[in-house]
# Entry
Amino acid sequence: MHTAVPPLPPLAGVSGRHILANLACLVGIFTVAACSGNSGGSGGGGKASADAGSSDVVGDGLGAVDAGDAKSDAGKSDGGGTGDATGSDGKDGGGDAMAPCTLPEEGICTGATVRWCDGGAEVAYDCKESDEAAVCGVLPDWGADCLLPKEAVCTYVDDEGDSAWAFCQGKDAGCVASGDDDDAYCAEGVGVCKDEDIDGCLGAHFVLDCGGGQALTIDCKASGGSCGDSPSGDKACIGVAKGQWCDDAYVYCAAGTKCVMAPEAEAGTCQ
# Structure
C-alpha cells in the first residue's frame, strides 16, 4: 500500500451491494423521488442536490475512494415511520402493513430498476434517474446494480463529502481516470478485476479499487507512461510524460523530469 496517500477504504455499498442505487437513494445523488420503499414511501431522506462528476480521484491528489457509509433509512416515510404502514408513534398510518422483503441478497433487476432488501424492507431505484442510458445489471460477487454507459462520468462526491465510483456497461468495463481532469469515465476493455489486483497493474492500468469484477483505475498509457514498479517498489504509473499529472505516489514522471508540486499540494505536473 502506498504511504503518501491515505489507504483506500474497501468498496462497499450501505449494505455491501447496490452502490450507485444505494448512494443515490440515501444521500440524494440524483433524486430522492426515484427511490421507493415497498409501500411507496420515498427511500432515504437525502438532500436533493448532487455533486456528481466532481470527485478528486485525479487532478488534486487521489481522494479516498469510498462507496459511502451513510446509515440506511431507505423505505422510511417522511413522517418517521417505516414505509406508509406506521406513523412515528407506531400506530396505523393509513397504509397496508409492509410485507417482509423476500428478494435474494444480491437483489434483482426489473427492467432498468434495481430492487433489493434493506432492513427487511424492499427498496427500488430506477437507474434511468442517474443517466438516461443507464441499465440495471447483475455483477459477479456483487449483485444487481446500475451500470452507466460508455464515456459517462463514473466518479462523484456524495453528501458526506466522500469520493465514490459507479459501475459501467460493456465488455471488461471499468471506471477510468487519465489525469486530464478531475473526473473518471466509463470505458470498455479495462479487464476483469479481482481483489488481489488492487494497488497493482491491470494491463496499462493502475488499479485503485475493485468490485463486481470491475475496476477503478488510472490509465497510465493515456499519460504517456505504463504501469510497473515505481521507485518506491510499489506498482504505479511510471514514465509519465512531461506536462502530465503526477504525485510521486500513484503516478511518477519519466526519467529526466520530476514532479513539481506547490507547497502543501498533493499533486503536481511532470516538468
Summary: Residues 113 and 126 are 4 Å apart (CA to CA). DSSP finds one helix and 21 strands in the chain.
